[in-house]
Amino acid sequence: MTDRGEQRDSEQQPELRPVTQPADLGAMDAVVPQPERATLVSHDQVAAEVGQAEVYRGRAHAPATLRAYRSDWAHFTAYCTDRGAAPLPADPLVVRTYLATCADRLGLKVATLRRRLAAIAHAHAEAGHQLDTTDAAFRATWRGIRRTHGVAQAAKAPVVTEVVKAMLDALPDTPALVRDRALLLVGFAGGFRRSELCALDVADLQWEPDGVRILVRQSKTDQEGAGMIKALPYAPTPDHCPARALRAWLDQADIEVGPIFRPVSKTGTVLPRRLTDQWVALTVKRALAPVAHAQAERAWERRSSTQQAREDRAVWIAAYVARMTRRYAGHSLRAGFVTSAAAAGARVDEIMDQTGQKDVKTVMRYVRNARSVRASAAAKLGL
Fold it and tell me: pTM for the full model?
C-alpha cells in the first residue's frame, strides 16, 4: 500500500521530457563549453597581415608631409655627422643648437623650423625613442627663436572676382584652354585647395538641374575622409559659369571615368594621369601674366617722360609682370573666393561651409582684408 505523502510528492514532481526542440538545443550550446577549434595560419599569411598593418601605419601622414620629414631628417643627420653627434636618440642640446643654427645661418622661418622639429620627433618615435623637448633650456631656446625670428607668413594675394574674369578673357588659344577655364572657375567658385582639385574624379560629380554637387572625399582638415559637398550653381553669365565650364571640359576631353583635371600634350592629346598641385599654381600664374602685362603697360604710360627716358620700356614692363605674378599662386583661388564672398556680404558660416575651413580666425583674416578702407573704424572718427 502506497503512502499518501509519497503519492502527493510524486504528483507535484514536474514531468521530465527529452530536450529535442531547436531552441532548447541552442540554449544548451550556450551553457555547455565547446572545445576550442585549433587553427593553423601559415607564416606567409601572418607576414601579409603584418605588412598590411605597416601599410596603414605609413598612411598616418600625408605623402607630402612624409617627403618633407625625410628631407628634414636627412639635413639633421648630416648636421650631427659633421659634429660627431648621435642623431638618434639625439641629445636635446644638439637639437636646440641645430634649430638655432638653422635660424641664424640659414635664415629659416619659424614655420620651417617647427616642421623640422616635428620631423626629428617623428623619426625618434618611429625608432621607439622619445625626444625630450620639455627641458627648461630647450623650451627657453625655442621661445627665444620664435620671439626673434617670428614674423607673419607672407600670404599669397587673393584672385578676386574681377581678376578671375580678366584672366578668363585673356586666356591664350591653346588645346588646354577649356581645361584651364574649368580649373580656374571651379577652383575659385568652390574655394578648393590645390590638392582637392587634383584629386577630383568623375565619380565625385552629381549633376542637377541647378548645377553640380562635388564630393571632396578627403582634404587637409579631413584626413580621415569623412567627406564634404561643394555646390556650384549655374551662373547667369555662361562665359563665367563654373558648372558649364566643367561640363565643357569633360565633353571635349571625352572624360567619363577617372581623374577630371589631366595634362594635355602639345598635340592636344588628353593624358590619362591627373594634374599635380604644382600645375594649379602654374596655371594661375600663366593665366595672370596677360592681365599683369596689360596693367604694366598702363602703368608705364602714366610715368613721366623723364622716368620713361631713364629706363628701357620692355625691361621695366617685364620686371613689373614678374613682381605681380610672384604674389599669386594656387592658393590665390581659394583666398580669392573667401575675400570676394566676404566683400559681397556672405556670412562667415556660409563661407566656411563652402571652403571646409575649421578655424574662424583664418576666415576672419580674409574678411578683414576684404573690407574697404572707407568701411574701417577709422572712417567713423569724424576727421
Answer: 0.66
